[in-house]
Structure formats: C-alpha cells, structure tokens
Amino acid sequence: MSATLETDEHKALRSAVAALGKRHGRDFDREALWAEAAKLGYLGVNLPEQYGGGGGGISELSIVLEELGAAGCPLLMMVVSPAICGTVIARFGTDAQKREWLPALADGSRTMAFGITEPDAGSNSHRITTTARKDGTDWLLTGRKVFISGVDIADATLIVGRTEDARTGRLKPCLFIVPRDAEGFSRRQIDMELQAAEKQFELTLDDVRLPADALVGDEDAGLLQLFAGLNPERIMTAAFAIGMGRYALAQAITYARDRTVWNAPIGAHQAVAHPLAQAHIDLELARLMMQKAAALYDAGDDVGAGEAANMAKYAAGEACVKAVDQAVHTLGGNGLTREFGLARLITAARVARIAPVSREMILNYVSHQTLGLPKSY
Ligand SMILES: Cc1cc2nc3c(=O)[nH]c(=O)nc-3n(C[C@H](O)[C@H](O)[C@H](O)COP(=O)(O)OP(=O)(O)OC[C@H]3O[C@@H](n4cnc5c(N)ncnc54)[C@H](O)[C@@H]3O)c2cc1C
C-alpha cells in the first residue's frame, strides 16, 4: 500500500488489528473479540473523542473491520452499531442521546442494531410502512421488519419508520431507538444457511410505546439522518467483503504453494495461479475505491462519498464472491470440508452482494445518477 494512500497511523492500526485478529482466528468467540476490540478502542475509533470515541472516521473503522475479516473473524455488528447507529447519533442525536449512547457504543458495553428492510418493501425503501403516531408526548410505533441482524444481542434497534407530516399529511421517514425488551416489540429468528454468530430476525412492532426522546434528532430531518448512516454502511460492507475475500485467498495461496499432485505445486499451473492473481487484483481495486469513499466521507463530502461508497460496495461484493469461489476450487475436495472451513464462506460471501443494497440497485444508481440514463421503475 502506497504511503500516499495510508498514513503511518493507518498502517500501525492495520497491523495492530491484524495481530488481534490472528490471536482470535476463525474459531473466534464473538463476545470475547467484541470486548477486546472495544477495550483497545477499535470499535469506537470513528466516534467523537468527547464521547469516549477515538475521534477518527470511517477510514479507520473500515481498516479495523477489514483486518478482522482478513484474519477470519469479522464482527458483522461493526457495520451496524458504531458505523450506522453511532454515526447517526453523533451527527444528529440530541445531547442526551449522545451522552446515553455514544460512550457505550464506543466501549462496546452496549450495541445497537439497525432495521430498515421490510417484507413488502425490500430494495424499495420508499415503500416502508412502519408508522409512528403521536399519543400525548409518546410515540406508538407499528410495523414489520425482516432480515434484521443481531437484534438479540443488541440493547436496542434503530428502527426506520415514518410519521405523518402535520401540514401536508405526507409520510416522512424518521428514526426511533427501540429497546430490546420494549412491550409489543417481538422477534422471530429466521432460519438462515449462514454460519455466523449474528442471527437475522423478523420483527413485529405492535403499538410499541416509546417516549418522546426515542426519536433521534429532529422529526423533520429524518431523510438527511438516514442518508448520513447509509454511506458508512456501504463502506463498512465493502470492508467486510474485502476482509473475507482476503482471508479466503490467503488460504488458497498457502494450499496452492504446498499441494503437489504432479511434479510441481498446483500453484505453478497458471490455470490455478492466474485466477488467484485476478482475485487479488480485484480485491485491491475494491479497496482503493473503499479508501476513496471513506476519505470523501470523512472530509464531509456526503454527495461524493455516496457514489464512491456504492461503487466500493459493488466492487467489494463481486471481488469477494469471486475470491471465495476460486479459493474453494483451489482446494479441490478440501474446499468443501469443514476442516478447511472455506465452503461456508460461499454463502457468507453472497451477503455482500445482496445487502445492504443489492448489486442491481447499485447498477441502477450508477446508471441514473452517474450516467444520466432513464429509469425503468
Ligand atoms: C445476512 C443478511 C443480513 C441483513 N441485515 C440487515 C439488517 O441488519 N438491517 C436491515 O435493515 N436489513 C438487513 N438485511 C436486508 C437486506 O438489506 C435486504 O435483503 C436487501 O436490501 C434486499 O432486499 P430484499 O431481500 O427484500 O430483496 P428484493 O428487494 O426483493 O430484491 C430481490 C432481487 O430483485 C432485484 N431487484 C429488485 N428491484 C430491482 C430493480 N428495480 N432493478 C433490478 N433488480 C431489482 C434485487 O437486486 C434482488 O436481486 C440483511 C440481509 C441479509 C441477507
């Protein structure tokens, strides 16, 4: 990595996190790693110093997640808790919300999940119907969410809902902090093929009564707040994917150097070596775009970061799927054994292609926003 792209601090952070990841490895205990990463200041590296964070940005947080992933122990909740929820609260929360949540998110003692996806809305988040209505000074929140990660291990979930605009009657998005045990807030675990410590849930909100201060920031700034969280989410998903791709590729390279069935290691055959080299190039390119997106975001350029973050997520998702596929293939039959642990990544790699926004929706975004092509939907 060139000195112009990463500072000495970034490089030091990378190697320190890599060492932590190496100590935990592929059979990691999620809670133990979360606690240790928090204690070392890695989980809150992007949060303001004033609230116990490291005062850095998404550039630093994405380094942490990438390196943990590259060591085989990614912490999925980093995409959600410090990156989306931490960012939204730090930028738009009230002083009381900042004091209550930011130090706890930074030191890892509390975690927050994030719920936007709905069964009947999916990729079309304009169609969400989870609705908040006023009851005195309280809010009553009703709706359904699906595929929400880590709700069982999170102290609260940041739920994207809508309120009715008193003037126009139109529904506008707004964000609510819903405690895990709030009355009327129930969850059902979805039976996923993924082998991960973080589970996905279908949520039902049935007239969940929330105090006025559960609403994040300002009722009229919901859309702005939501968008503020989405760029960090995409950048962090890119970091997640690049880490996983690097992990798979490293296993394949080690194997290809040793495994000999003719008169040279299989890695000497170009049919084995070239796809691995291509996978490496694709991951490096995706990381370059991720760094660009993170740099733009940290510099306060939300619009510029939007395009770069989408492209980074797309490139990283595709690079990860290809790297995992080639890694599994390189190990022959061993690619499918539990012992080598690569086959389970075939499913895991697909997550970065579909969430938080699918490959096709990014291609739509680039077609319309960047290329100015007309919309079909
Ligand atoms: C492991 C996992 C964890 C997740 N965690 C969370 C979470 O913590 N919080 C949360 O809110 N959500 C989460 N999600 C949900 C995720 O963000 C959604 O799955 C994703 O946004 C896609 O929505 P959908 O599944 O409803 O697919 P759909 O919207 O039904 O799309 C299905 C297919 O149609 C394609 N498609 C749809 N519309 C178009 C179009 N206009 N043009 C071209 N193609 C189109 C899509 O690309 C996709 O391939 C998670 C999902 C997974 C798998």
Automatic annotation (TrEMBL):
<feature type="domain" description="Acyl-CoA dehydrogenase/oxidase C-terminal">
    <location>
        <begin position="222"/>
        <end position="364"/>
    </location>
</feature>
<keyword id="KW-0274">FAD</keyword>
<dbReference type="InterPro" id="IPR037069">
    <property type="entry name" value="AcylCoA_DH/ox_N_sf"/>
</dbReference>
<dbReference type="InterPro" id="IPR006091">
    <property type="entry name" value="Acyl-CoA_Oxase/DH_mid-dom"/>
</dbReference>
<dbReference type="InterPro" id="IPR036250">
    <property type="entry name" value="AcylCo_DH-like_C"/>
</dbReference>
<dbReference type="InterPro" id="IPR046373">
    <property type="entry name" value="Acyl-CoA_Oxase/DH_mid-dom_sf"/>
</dbReference>
<comment type="similarity">
    <text>Belongs to the acyl-CoA dehydrogenase family.</text>
</comment>
<feature type="domain" description="Acyl-CoA dehydrogenase/oxidase N-terminal">
    <location>
        <begin position="16"/>
        <end position="108"/>
    </location>
</feature>
<dbReference type="Pfam" id="PF02771">
    <property type="entry name" value="Acyl-CoA_dh_N"/>
</dbReference>
<feature type="domain" description="Acyl-CoA oxidase/dehydrogenase middle">
    <location>
        <begin position="113"/>
        <end position="208"/>
    </location>
</feature>
<dbReference type="InterPro" id="IPR009100">
    <property type="entry name" value="AcylCoA_DH/oxidase_NM_dom_sf"/>
</dbReference>
<dbReference type="Pfam" id="PF00441">
    <property type="entry name" value="Acyl-CoA_dh_1"/>
</dbReference>
<dbReference type="InterPro" id="IPR009075">
    <property type="entry name" value="AcylCo_DH/oxidase_C"/>
</dbReference>
<keyword id="KW-0560">Oxidoreductase</keyword>
<dbReference type="Pfam" id="PF02770">
    <property type="entry name" value="Acyl-CoA_dh_M"/>
</dbReference>
<protein>
    <submittedName>
        <fullName>Acyl-CoA dehydrogenase family protein</fullName>
    </submittedName>
</protein>
<dbReference type="InterPro" id="IPR050741">
    <property type="entry name" value="Acyl-CoA_dehydrogenase"/>
</dbReference>
<keyword id="KW-0285">Flavoprotein</keyword>
<dbReference type="InterPro" id="IPR013786">
    <property type="entry name" value="AcylCoA_DH/ox_N"/>
</dbReference>
